[in-house]
Amino acid sequence: MQPLWLAERVGGLMSLVLLTVVVLLGIAVSAQWRTKYLTEARISGLHRWLSLVIIIFLAIHVVSTVTDSYVSVEWLAILVPFTSTYKTNWVAIGTLAFDLLIALLITSYLRTKIGRKAWVVIHRLTYLCWGFATIHALGGSSEISLTYALALTGVVLVAVAAVMRFVRPPAVIVEGHPKGLPGITSAGE
Ligand code: HEM
Q1: Structural domains in the chain (count)
Q2: Of 52, 129, 166, 177, which one's alpha carbon is 20 to 30 angstroms from that of 101?
Q3: Could you tell me the distance, in angstroms and rounded to a whole number, from the CA of residue 137 to the centre of ligand 1?
Q4: Span from the CA of 96 to the centroid of ligand 1 (angstroms)
Q5: What is the Cα–Cα distance from 42 to 106, expressed in whole angstroms?
Q6: Per-residue pLDDT tens over the stretch 150-179
Q7: DSSP string, 94-119
């Protein structure tokens, strides 16, 4: 196996797995799932930290893809969809996931400036970003077995977590209001 090909593959698969874990941790934060050890602060810290670690693996994935002379993917294709000569459509979906991820990271750092409501709406695009990344991996991969196993495991986990989160949102008691009275709201609203 060529080193660049290996880097492309490891970078891509690690990015996909981490993105899935970040989505699951995000759902856990908004659903207020926690344990004695995994406190809300730890889950939320891990969610933020891993979302930055993804960038390292994505950088490995895209740089090794573009510099690998075996396939013809241009530098522009990292940011501009449909500009890759190689697997144009599948790469474009990966580019859209990449652009969305950058936008999500930037808006999270500007959260206090854009306001919580706008941030929540924008942050829901994380599902779209993760969906694009999964479709890109499934369609773009030339070595499907491991990619399929990881991508489909991620789909099942996120689907189950999302159903649990949105079908039965947790009740949050706003300070000073006992249960059942005005002041009880849905988490993440
Ligand atoms: C969030 C963004 C992205 C994620 C999570 C991601 C992840 C993946 C994964 C898991 C694979 C399959 C790896 C394998 O089985 O070999 C893959 C393939 C591929 N990715 Fe990405 N990718 C992303 C963005 C991009 C971008 C922006 C580009 C453009 C430079 C790109 C170029 C490619 C190419 C060309 C392949 C196919 C390689 C082959 O022929 O097997 N990806 N990606």
Answers
A1: 1
A2: 166
A3: 6
A4: 11
A5: 22
A6: 999 999 999 999 998 888 666 554 444 444
A7: HHHHHHHHHHHHHHHHTHHHH-HHHH
Distances (CA, A) of 43 to 39, 47, 122, 187: 6, 6, 21, 16
Cβ-based neighbours of 93, under 8 Å, separated by 6 or more: 81, 132, 135, 136, 139, 140
The residue segments making up the domain with residue 19 are 3-186
Q: Positive or negative, the Cα torsion across 102, 157, 90, 61? A: positive
Note the pTM of the prediction, 2 decimals: 0.88
Task: Tell me how far apart the alpha carbons of residues 27 and 37 are, in angstroms, rounded to a whole number.
Answer: 18
CA dihedral 25, 77, 146, 56 (to 10 degrees): -50
Pairing of strands 171-173, 184-186: antiparallel
- Sign of the dihedral defined by the CA atoms of residues 177, 180, 185, 186, in that order: positive
Distance between CA atoms of residues 89 and 109, nearest Å: 31
